[in-house]
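Annex B, item 7. Sequence and structure tokens for protein A, then protein B.
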Amino acid sequence: MKLVNGYSVIRLFGYTKQPNGFIRQRRTKFLSGAKGFTLIELLLYMGLVAIFLTATVYFAWDVVLGNVKAGVHQEVQENLRSAAHRIQFEIRNADSINTVSPILSLTAPSPNNPTEFRLSNGTLEIKQGSGSWTPITSSAVEVTSLTFTDLTDTSSENIRFILTIRHRNPSGRSEWEKEATIESSAQIR
């Protein structure tokens, strides 16, 4: 309560009760010149930031998963290409075919006689001469199928092979799944 010209004036929420009983609004602006955000503006900004962060996280996740998939694909293709090239090379440089199934055995020039290929616990292995079995494929992949077929006729000795390799996926995640097959043949020169 305040005395103005001898009268009591009550100020309540921006209104002034005059001594004559009238209530009049003060001519001041509510929060004039105040700095800050309203609640609606704050909620709007928070929503926009949340949408932006969600989109950024999804984009980053896609980039990471794309990189994983590309690495898996590259690993399988590189092992498939390398193994097929090695089999073709050894067949072309062999003197003759000894056996085709289940182990491919080739008569090769000394000291690599015989040269043999086998599938052991998902790994393609080669043995040359009296040496030990050496893996051709990496431990990151598994050879699921290896088939040799003797296509020898009267004029040439040929071997067809079908090789299937897949990426080892102990966790079962779809990003780590990749399988590829190659079918090729080689002729002994």
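Protein B:
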Amino acid sequence: MIDENGLEIGNDGRPTHDWTREDPKGESGINLTLTNRPIVHWPILADDSATGSDHEVIEWEVGVDWQEEADHERVVGWDLWAKTEKEAEAAEELWMQLAKERAQQDSECTEDEVEQEAAWCQEAISSVLHATAKQIRICARSKRWWNVDIKERRWTVGTERRRRQNSEEAALAKAEHQKSTWQSKKKM
């Protein structure tokens, strides 16, 4: 799994777990730090950082290529909710043109051919969306599920709530509550 995902083990050989049983005291490196970037700092913290566990506290830092990180932060998606019917038809037409030039895979295709087809599909879909949909920046706080329908429903609910709060019935209930509170304080 480590090799398949291009991960590195950051441990430097020191034990990260101590145990005592009926047997003599033992230790092992059971806690692994796995990363896909080089680890530049991997200290085991002193006992004053103890957690009550028999595992050591490890603090680690990876080397970061800041330009690469900046490129990752510029993740771009497409605003598919805002597409008009005309834009959707244009996207479908462009997709059909691209797909027409591509040979169909059959049951005899190899694993490499399937991988190549998947990569082509991803690139083709991206190019169709770049050409026909508005690009948007996606971040951790993006609410891709938030759409016009939800916005309208929230506005309707808020309007109804404000209407009820400002109604005569609400005013009478508030006056009754204030009168009751005043009488209770008067008795005290």
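Comment on protein B: The chain has a mean pLDDT of 78.
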